[in-house]
Structure formats: structure tokens, C-alpha cells
Design goal:
Length: 219
């Protein structure tokens, strides 16, 4: 496999984050999450972290130029020498264009994977999630149910569903994702890079990751 940047997209609840972690293991390249990068800079209280913190405290989104700079700085680190998985970046067309230019200058191939999952399937998955308010254990009433209905296996506490797992909230997140991401997918489809749409409705996370890994290695 040539030096590759694998960019993973998928709607909320599609399993995108899980796939990014599994792919990093399968392909033996690091999983780069922009959320993690931001948190590390804020915790380190370095110049970038202070800039990010000020923006967050003001309730604003980080400008594209700052996000691009932070991501590029991370991608220059030695562990990215053989490639990397990008999760949560790019989020805008300007970020995608900046990333494409930088990757081209570095001789790194872009491979875009869009995890396609039916929204009704995602709503069913997310609305079935439950969490123990005492110990934090997570369950899914369909795929990973507790031994007794709505009760934690560990301490017998009544399980709760999170507010952001309610169907109305989930569908709002879908709408925002569609508005933000569909133009990005169109950009990558027309950019001439390898683009794969992968069915995430069926199969285990591991089997889906195996399929994606096979596609990425084709290059």
C-alpha cells in the first residue's frame, strides 16, 4: 500500500468512529481525530491551545485556517510517515481544498470512504442505547441487551437513555450532517481521488472494516 490518507465519512451513529479505530489497526497507521488534537493542545496550554480555548469560550467555530494549521502540524509527526486515518476532518470545502493541496505536495494519496447507513437503521440503533447512571456501563437493547430489562447487570440500577439519543435530536443531527457533508462528498467525487461508498447497514464492525481495508489496499 502506498502512502495513503484515508478520510472517513459517515452520518451520526453510523459507526464511523469505530471504523476509523479498526482501520488504524488493520492498516497499521494512526487514527487522527481532530477533536483529540484540539483537546491535547488545550490541555498542554500551548499557543495553539490558548487560541482554540479563546474561540471555544466565545462560542465560535474555529476558522478553517486555524484548523488546517493544527491538522497539518499533527500530520507532519513521524508516526504519520506511512499514512493515516482522518476522522472529523475536513468539515468544509475550504478545509478539503487545503488538505488536498497539502497531500499532493507531500505525495500522499487520498482515499475517501463514505459509510452509507440508512437513517432508519441508525435511529433504531441509537434509540436502543441505554447507559447506567451509576457505573456508566453501556448497553443496546437490540445488540447488547442487559440480562434483565432496563436494569444494569453490574449494580441493578435502572438504565437511562441520553437526551441526545432521542429520535427528534438524532434526526436534527442527520439534517445538519446532510447540509454540511453532502457538498464535501461531491467535492471528493469530482476531485479525482479514490472514492468508496461502503454499505454499513449489515455485518459486524469487524467485517465492515475488513471490507474497507481490502478496498484501501487495492491502491
Amino acid at each position: 500500500m502506498s502512502k495513503t490518507a484515508v478520510i472517513v465519512f459517515g452520518p451520526p451513529g453510523s459507526g464511523k468512529g469505530t471504523q476509523a479505530v479498526l482501520l488504524a489497526d488493520h492498516l497499521r497507521i494512526p487514527h487522527i481525530s481532530t477533536g483529540d488534537i484540539f483537546r491535547l493542545h488545550v490541555q498542554a496550554n500551548d499557543a495553539l491551545g490558548q487560541e482554540v480555548q479563546a474561540i471555544m469560550q466565545a462560542g465560535r467555530l474555529a476558522p478553517d485556517e486555524l484548523v488546517n494549521r493544527i491538522v497539518e502540524d499533527r500530520l507532519k509527526q513521524p508516526d504519520c510517515a506511512s499514512g493515516f486515518i482522518l476522522d472529523g476532518y475536513p468539515r468544509t470545502r475550504a478545509q478539503a481544498q487545503a488538505l488536498g493541496g497539502w497531500l499532493k505536495s507531500m505525495g500522499i494519496e487520498q482515499v475517501v470512504v463514505n459509510l452509507a447507513v440508512d437513517y432508519n437503521v441508525i435511529v433504531a440503533r441509537i434509540s436502543s442505547r441505554r447507559q447506567c447512571p451509576v457505573c456508566g456501563a453501556s448497553y443496546n437493547l437490540v445488540s447488547n441487551p442487559p440480562r434483565h430489562d432496563e436494569v444494569c447487570d453490574r449494580d441493578g440500577s435502572a438504565l437511562k437513555s441520553r437526551e441526545d439519543d432521542q429520535e427528534a435530536v438524532v434526526r436534527q443531527r442527520f439534517q445538519a450532517y446532510e447540509q454540511q457533508t453532502v457538498p464535501l462528498l461531491d467535492h471528493f467525487r469530482s476531485a479525482g481521488c479514490r472514492f468508496y461508498e461502503v454499505d454499513g447497514n449489515h455485518g459486524t464492525p469487524e467485517s465492515i472494516a475488513n471490507s474497507i481495508s481490502g478496498l484501501v489496499r487495492l491502491g
